[in-house]
Amino acid sequence: MPDDQEMGHGLVLNGCTPSPLSHYLKGLGVLRVLSTSDDGVRAAWRGECLVLYSARERTALCKHLLSDYSPAPVMAPWNGGSGFYAKDNKKALHAIIGGTAPRLAGLRDCLKVAEQALAGMDRQSSPKGDAKNRLLTQVRALLPDAALDWFDAVIVLAGDSAKFPPLLGTGGNDGRLDFTNNFMQRLLDVMDADTGAATQASRAWLELALFGEPAPALVTNAIGQFAPGQVGGPNASTGFDGSGGMNPWDFILMLEGAMLFAAAAVRRNASDGESVLSYPFTVRATAAGVGSLGAGDDGAAARGELWLPLWSQPAAYTEVRSLLAEGRVALGQRPARDALDFVRAVHRLGGYRGVDRYQRFGLLMRSGKAYLAAPLERVQVTCDPRTDWIDELDNKGGWLAQFRYFAKSDTTANRFAALCQRLENLLFDLARRPPQPGRVQALLALLGEIQSAIATSAKAREKLSPVPRLSKRWTEAADDQSPTFRIARALAGLRGSEKIPLPLRSQWYPVHPRTGDWMDDACKARPNDALCEVRLHSPRQSDLPRTLITLLERRLWLAKRLGMTEKPLLSRAGARLNDLMAFLHSDSMDAALTALLPGLILCDIPAASDYEADDTIAPAAYALLKLVLTPESQLQKLDRLPADSQVPIPPGMLAQLASGQSERAVGAAWRRLHASGLSPISMPSALPKLAGIDPRRAAASLLIPLNRRACRSLARIALNPVNPLPHEDESHGDESNMENHHEP
Fold first, then answer.
1. Which of 132, 227, 410, 593 is most open to solvent, judged by the fewest CB atoms within 10 Å of its CB?
2. What pLDDT shows up at residue 4?
3. End of a domain among 415, 442, 464?
4. Considering only CA atoms, which of 79, 149, 70, 147 is closest in space to residue 110?
5. Residue where a domain terminates, one of 446, 464, 482
6. What is the mean pLDDT of residues 35-61?
7. Domains in the chain: how many in total?
8. Bridge partners (DSSP) listed for residue 331
9. DSSP letter at 431?
10. Can you give the pLDDT at residue 527?
11. How far is it between the farthest Cα atoms of the chain?
12. One domain, residues 341 and 460
């Protein structure tokens, strides 16, 4: 492919822009038309214009189009309104067939072939059903090769029926507007049917079409779905209403460009006996990624979406045609089905085909029942896509596709459709931009909402599996280094033991700790599983402190019931002491924790440092309470508890604390620590008080795991000193709590 220096600076076509659709297709049409007489012509999209690289300068280019351009055989004898039937406008058709202009010879000959195919048929109206299919087969067999580009762009013969690509309506028309008859009429606007000479206004219209130069009045005719701003209607002109205006050259070159899009009937897979329409860069419409679209715009009110490629390096017509021919975008092993699939796959295709942007159009029902190609957005191809994150939702049993299908069913509750639309928007955003912690947290929070909605719906649980377990990179990408996140991460990392897993997600949702399936389904296949003999799931409470207290009480009960030898309060990523103090002294993080935690527990939690900087001092009364709930293994690593020793939780201590009886709870904690040989400070007659801390929040916080530095600080505050062993030196960053322990 020649570079810019070899080809000069190029001719900027200000009239050929990525949007509206008519102007994009017009640019392709210019390239197609010129390539028939100039093999060296190239084109590239720069900014908002098409740049043409050709041996022809501006004057020679206009002269060629005005005097030598031979239009493609564009016709649709199968359509009513095409000029071939009794009630049609036949003026342009008859003028071209009866004319003698050499440049119209190819079109004229093909129109005669169409007349031959229609011979003997009833011309009162266009054929329908089987009669139309027979006519289509006959017409295609009779047409010369030069006419097949147009035929294959508007009709796909698949088996015994015809399919219609969305770009050109239903076989070359849009409702009562036939594109082919209008094409012939516009040809007669710019050239004489007998001599082929350009009309008086043709040059001005051409310079407007190519370069955006001012021109006299446009033709008052419809342009169809290709240019929504030119369809007319309210506020279209001065006054309350106006008719649509059109540049004849826009329409002519637009249809010439549309012929680069050739459809095909393909088999999606070997087991699929039906042929499916495949069209370049075309997918099902989705409201994702565009705030101006509603949920109804991805159903019957849309014909689909076009994602039209924009390339910045000069490319020849054959290269562009090859790009469009290969534009049936695949996501992994399957074709992209909608905009969300496309934006995930777009980086892979664009990276090696030279495409750096895509203009997205939605073929949406607007202005009554008319379809318009609404420009939706411009999508930039990035060099560092993050779409593999979304693959985790889809690759594990196809959960994402299943949920989207379920949510959009007519028999599904509306709340699922609303959740699905929010999910699509967030996934679309993540797929096209580098992830930021706030965006990832929002996505996790939404996945938590979805999991909760499915869990509380018997119909949804029957149709859908739980949200798949997500990898550690989701956790890492969501980390905004805030106390709220560190507390949520610590809670999400709660586990049981290697033999008896007890992740927090199995308390939050009715899912099996080992398999991740819904508990009822998993237990049918595991009749002797001890985890199936107890209820793990804890009902959600009215606020965060009550929820955490309920989870803690149930967790401690489960530990006894399942025969665990240690408190199930260990986490791979403990919180800092200053995080815990922030939670104790304010409820400002409760809303964020409530939103984030249900989604973060769906993720694997990576190990975090046990010795992050933290100089916070906790109240001695709280330190006594927290040490009683500290897992024995942590106390042993601090050399505060002998091996094989236990610190049982005093009966009623949690209930006393949650009900506001903090002094009784602190006394019970002191006695238990003393009885276990941990040597707590002070005496029973002069115990420290939980001053300035809400006892209920203190009870809730006992569920939050702390890192080892925080535990050591609490021990120094609440226990009498001991002689440290060499391995206690914090400066060496003891990593013994960061072993590669994988939750079963």
1. 410
2. 39
3. 464
4. 147
5. 464
6. 93
7. 3
8. 334
9. H
10. 84
11. 117
12. no
